[in-house]
Task: inverse folding
C-alpha cells in the first residue's frame, strides 16, 4: 500500500482553545454564578486562565492518566477545567451531582479520582461524600478564598488561590491523539454505572461533525447557551464546538428555571440554546407570561428525549424559534443525528420531519437488526434494534464490561438499546426502547434498580417499574406492586422505604397495587402487557388498587 506523504499531527483538545484564543479571541464566555452574578471573559482570557490552571494541576501532582473529578454546574471555571485537565494528559471526569450519594461514591471509587473540584452550593453533598471518596482525594472549591463555605474538610482549597500566581504559559505535552481525555458514567440498564472514556481524537472528531451537522448553531455571530449540563456528556460537545467555530458561550450555572433562563438569554443576547425538552417547558411558560421570546433567540436544539409536536408548534408558530431535534447517547460523545434545517430559509422543514430524530452526522454509521441479529431494510419499512459505529462511538467501557455481547455485535457495532427505523437518506426515527430505563427530565432512572430496591421493602412480593408519559418530565416512573401476605402495605410505606435508597427525583410518582403481574411465556414479567394493562381506564383494570 502506498502511504500518503502528509504530516501527522495529533488531534488535541488544547489546540481548540489555542485556535479560538488566536482567531476568535474576542468571542466570549459568559458565566452566571449561583447567586446570579455574571462573569464575562474572552477566549483569549480563558486560555490565559487555562494555562495557569495547567501549571497549578502539575504543581499539586496531577500526572497523565490521573482522573480528576468535577461536581459542578455550567460555568467558566468548569470549562477551564475541561481544557487544563485534558491538556496535561489527565482525564476530566464529570460527575452528575443529581445522582444518589451511593452512586456518586461508587463512581468516584471506580474511577479512582485523585482530585475533586466542586461548586460551593454542593458543599453539603461533598461533606457527606467525603468519608466514602477515594482516600487522599484533594478537594478544591470553585470559588475564591473569601467564597469558601465554612465547615468544609480541613485542607479544602479554593480554585482561585490555586490558579493565582501561576504563570500564564505552559507547553502542552505532545500527546498521542488516542490519549484519554474525558470520562462520563451512564446508568446501565443492569448493574453499576458504566464509564464512557473519550479521547482527544474522538472529541475533536465529534466537535467537527456537529459543526458540520448543526450549522445553524455555530459561527462568530452565534451566542450559545448550553442548558444541557457540562456533567452530562460534555454538554453535548458544546465546550469544544463553540470555541472551535468562534461562537460565544453563555453558561447558566445551576439556575435553569424558566424565569432565570429567560432573563439570562435576554440580557446576554443568546441566539441559540441546547437542552432536553423538560427545560424548554419552563422557558415556554415564561415566554407565555411575558408574551415574547428572549430578544435574540432564534433556534433551540432539543434532544435527550423525544420532542413533542406541541412543543415544536408552540416554539415555532407562537414564538418564531426554530427547533432542531437531535438524538445521541453518552456512548456516542453524544450527538448521532440532528434535523437538517435550512440556514437561510428557516421553518421550511415540516413538523412531521422534525418529530423524527434527524439525519446521521458524518462519521456515524447506523444499521438496524432483527432479534436474530440479521440486518433489516434501511427504507423506513422495518423497525429493529439500532446499532452504530464510528470514530465517536465507544469501543469498550472504562475497565470493560461483563456484558460485551449485549453491548456490541460480532462485528463490533455498538447496540444502542433503541428501536428505530432508518431511511436511505440517513434519517432516524425512534419507535421504542429495548433497555429497561425510564427517562425523566433527560436523566435516567433504572427500572431494574427501582424494582430491586422495592423488593427489599417488607410486605412487597413482586414489583415492576414502567415509564408513564408526563407532560413536564417526558416520562415518570410508576411502580406496580404485588403485596406479600400480611398486614396491608400502603403506597407511603413503599415510598418511605425507597427514599433511603434512591434520589428523590427517582422515586415513583405512583405505586399501584395489583393482585398479580402479567408474565411472559418464559416466566418473566411482561412490561409490554403491563403497559397495555395500565393504559386502560381504571375501571377496566381488574385486580388493581
Ligand atoms: P443523552 O441524554 O445526552 O441523549 P444518554 O446516554 O443519557 O444521552 O441517553 C441516550 C438515550 O436517550 C438514547 O439511547 C435514547 O433512548 C434517548 N434519547 C436521546 N435522544 C432522544 C431523542 N431525541 N428522542 C428519543 N429518545 C432519545
Result:
Amino acid at each position: 500500500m502506498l502511504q500518503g506523504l502528509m504530516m501527522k499531527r495529533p488531534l488535541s483538545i488544547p489546540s481548540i482553545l489555542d485556535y479560538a484564543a488566536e482567531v476568535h479571541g474576542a468571542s466570549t464566555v459568559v458565566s452566571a454564578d449561583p447567586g446570579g452574578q455574571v462573569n464575562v471573559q474572552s477566549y483569549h482570557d480563558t486560555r490565559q486562565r487555562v494555562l495557569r490552571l495547567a501549571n497549578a494541576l502539575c504543581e499539586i501532582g496531577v500526572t497523565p492518566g490521573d482522573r480528576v473529578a468535577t461536581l459542578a454546574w455550567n460555568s467558566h471555571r468548569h470549562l477551564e477545567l475541561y481544557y487544563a485537565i485534558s491538556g496535561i494528559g489527565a482525564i476530566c471526569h464529570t460527575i452528575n451531582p443529581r445522582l444518589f450519594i451511593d452512586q456518586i461514591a461508587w463512581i468516584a471509587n471506580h474511577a479512582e479520582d485523585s482530585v475533586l473540584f466542586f461548586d460551593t452550593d454542593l458543599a453539603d453533598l461533598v461533606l457527606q461524600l467525603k468519608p466514602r471518596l477515594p482516600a487522599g482525594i484533594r478537594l478544591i472549591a470553585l470559588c475564591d478564598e473569601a467564597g469558601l463555605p465554612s465547615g468544609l474538610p480541613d485542607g479544602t482549597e479554593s480554585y482561585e488561590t490555586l490558579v493565582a500566581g501561576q504563570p500564564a504559559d505552559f507547553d502542552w505535552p505532545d500527546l498521542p491523539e488516542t490519549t484519554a481525555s474525558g470520562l462520563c458514567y451512564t446508568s446501565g440498564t443492569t448493574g453499576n454505572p458504566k464509564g464512557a472514556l473519550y479521547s482527544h481524537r474522538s472529541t475533536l472528531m465529534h466537535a467537527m461533525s456537529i459543526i458540520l451537522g448543526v450549522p445553524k448553531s455555530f459561527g462568530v455571530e452565534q451566542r450559545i447557551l448550553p442548558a444541557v449540563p457540562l456533567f452530562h456528556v460534555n454538554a453535548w460537545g458544546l465546550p469544544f464546538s463553540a470555541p472551535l467555530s468562534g461562537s460565544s458561550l453563555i453558561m447558566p450555572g445551576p439556575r435553569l428555571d424558566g424565569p432565570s433562563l429567560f432573563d439570562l438569554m435576554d440580557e446576554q443576547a443568546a441566539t441559540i440554546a441546547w437542552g432536553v425538552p423538560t427545560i424548554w417547558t419552563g422557558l415556554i411558560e415564561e415566554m407565555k407570561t411575558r408574551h415574547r421570546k428572549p430578544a435574540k433567540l432564534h433556534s433551540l436544539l432539543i434532544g435527550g428525549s423525544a420532542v413533542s409536536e406541541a412543543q415544536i408548534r408552540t416554539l415555532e408558530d407562537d414564538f418564531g424559534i426554530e427547533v432542531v431535534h437531535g438524538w445521541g447517547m453518552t456512548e456516542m460523545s453524544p450527538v448521532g443525528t440532528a434535523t437538517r434545517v435550512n440556514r437561510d430559509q428557516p421553518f421550511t422543514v415540516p413538523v412531521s420531519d422534525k418529530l423524527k430524530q434527524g439525519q446521521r452526522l458524518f462519521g456515524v454509521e447506523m444499521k438496524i437488526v432483527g432479534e436474530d441479529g440479521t440486518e433489516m431494510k434501511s427504507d423506513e419499512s422495518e423497525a429493529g434494534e439500532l446499532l452504530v459505529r464510528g470514530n465517536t462511538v465507544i469501543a469498550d467501557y472504562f475497565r470493560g464490561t461483563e456484558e460485551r455481547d449485549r453491548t456490541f455485535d460480532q462485528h463490533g457495532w455498538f447496540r444502542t438499546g433503541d428501536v428505530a427505523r432508518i431511511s436511505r437518506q440517513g434519517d432516524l426515527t425512534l419507535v421504542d426502547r429495548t433497555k429497561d430505563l425510564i427517562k425523566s427530565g433527560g436523566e435516567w432512572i433504572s427500572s431494574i434498580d427501582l424494582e430491586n430496591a422495592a423488593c427489599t421493602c417488607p410486605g412487597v412480593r413482586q414489583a415492576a417499574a414502567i415509564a408513564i408519559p408526563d407532560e413536564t418530565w417526558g416520562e415518570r416512573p410508576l411502580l406496580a406492586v404485588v403485596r406479600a401476605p400480611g398486614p396491608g402495605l400502603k403506597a407511603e410505606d413503599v415510598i418511605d422505604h425507597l427514599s433511603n435508597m434512591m434520589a428523590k427525583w427517582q422515586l415513583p410518582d405512583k405505586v399501584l397495587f395489583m393482585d398479580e403481574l402479567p408474565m411472559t411465556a418464559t416466566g418473566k414479567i411482561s412490561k409490554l402487557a403491563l403497559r397495555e394493562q395500565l393504559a386502560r381506564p381504571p375501571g377496566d383494570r381488574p385486580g388493581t388498587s
The CA atoms of residues 103 and 192 lie 8 Å apart.
